Amino acid sequence: MYYQKLKKFPKNFLWGAASAAYQIEGAFDEDGKGPSIWDTFSKIPGKTFNGTNGDIAVDHYHRYKEDVRLMSEMGLKAYRFSIAWSRIIPDGDGEINSEGLKFYDNLINELIRYHIEPIVTLYHWDIPQALQDKYNGWESRKNIQAFKKYCQTVFKAFGDRVKYWVTFNEQNVFTAMGYRWASHPPNISDVKRMYAANHIVNLANAEAINLFHQMVPQGKIGPSFGYGPTYPITADPNDVLAADNADDFNNNWWLDVYCRGTYPALVMNHLKDLGIAPEVTLDDKKLLKSAKPDFLGINYYHGGTFQQNQIEHPDKTSQHEKDFSKTDPYLMQPKDTQAQTPEMAMFNNVENPYLHKTQWGWEIDSVGFRITLRRVYEKYQLPIMVTENGLGAHDKLEGNNEVNDQYRIDYLQTHITEMQRALTDGVDLLGYCAWSFTDLLSWLNGYKKRYGFVYVDRDDNGPKNLTRIPKKSFYWYRDFIQKNS
């Protein structure tokens, strides 16, 4: 669809940036905070790049006032951050830690003082280690009540000042990486357990939404999902069908539950045939149906391209076929044998010959962003908040204390332009939170993979002086927000 003129962003559009507690806060054991599964997992030899962890991270816990001041100088309208569950309730379901509440209370008040809308994520992958030890974490239904208690605590404390809340960040990623590929905590490789844990997270999500609507009726809440559009590699109807299968498997398996309260029949039937489907009770179905999100958070980085499965057509090969020895956390791709790869009978993932890649091998597809927003909005008819979109790169601090990240500006500019086209197409958009505000700990790649508008002077060998240095993209985004176009 071509337009001579694009629709302007609304005056109240939430131009923002995002972060996650474990990746920025540090202070991992200060003021009563208990350990999370990431505090434990990152200490396992070989699990993270050079043994990097979030013990100090970029020390946002002690420097939040400086960071918020920089957000104000940048002109941010919103800041999305997560609360560390184990900072609020150190053992997950016991005594409430007043010092933990105080930190987030101060942060929220500081944001409001600078007229920055706080957007709170309840869960960004860091369940308290005590709950992992006590209940096996998300594999136990008992964990749902623990999560509900935590939610009740923070809704009561901050619901008077925080309008927008995100329940779970990228459930499709943390369940796959943690329970299937053992590359995230809890370090498990069992696809059946992954689907079982994923279902329990769905129930916890529904409980949190229903509780929120009771406690904070004036607020808005919804999950944040890592979405990737699916393309067929050719116009062969078999490839088109494979792309549809991939859409059900990679996207609708979560979004249909969030928005409709039901699992896609195609995927559920397939998982049942393989003996790996989750147990869904009648009460589960009622709960999932009862919870209605107010908006959808969409994290967008790239999509995927597909051809017909190789079981039906073993001779159908492509020069663009992926090397499955390296898995991508946003695509749920096969890694092991048929017993552990339900995708195998549904589709085959291949390279897209029309797209370039980032330094980390992620395809760059700005038009896919527009496709994502249109598909999700047309299907579910819920307002969308872009909760993540950004470029990880090897940023270089030059001798004059400057970071010339024009490549990030180019990336963000093309993606925002496609977002504006989606807005013109009719998509209801609430805001855009770029990933991320400052540089931060990349979960598995340490501090060498940088996303921020603000350079933090630290590396994988240590924190150095943690000086904040605005990059070229900082000033570009500041000017962009002022123009609102």
UniProtKB/TrEMBL annotation:
GO terms for molecular function: 6-phospho-beta-glucosidase activity. GO terms for cellular component: cytosol. Belongs to the glycosyl hydrolase 1 family. Gene3D superfamilies: Glycosidases. GO terms for biological process: carbohydrate catabolic process. The keyword Hydrolase applies. The keyword Hydrolase applies. It comes from the Bacteria. It comes from Companilactobacillus bobalius. PROSITE patterns: GLYCOSYL_HYDROL_F1_2. This is 6-phospho-beta-glucosidase. Its EC number is 3.2.1.86. SUPFAM superfamilies: (Trans)glycosidases (SSF51445). Keywords: Glycosidase, Hydrolase.
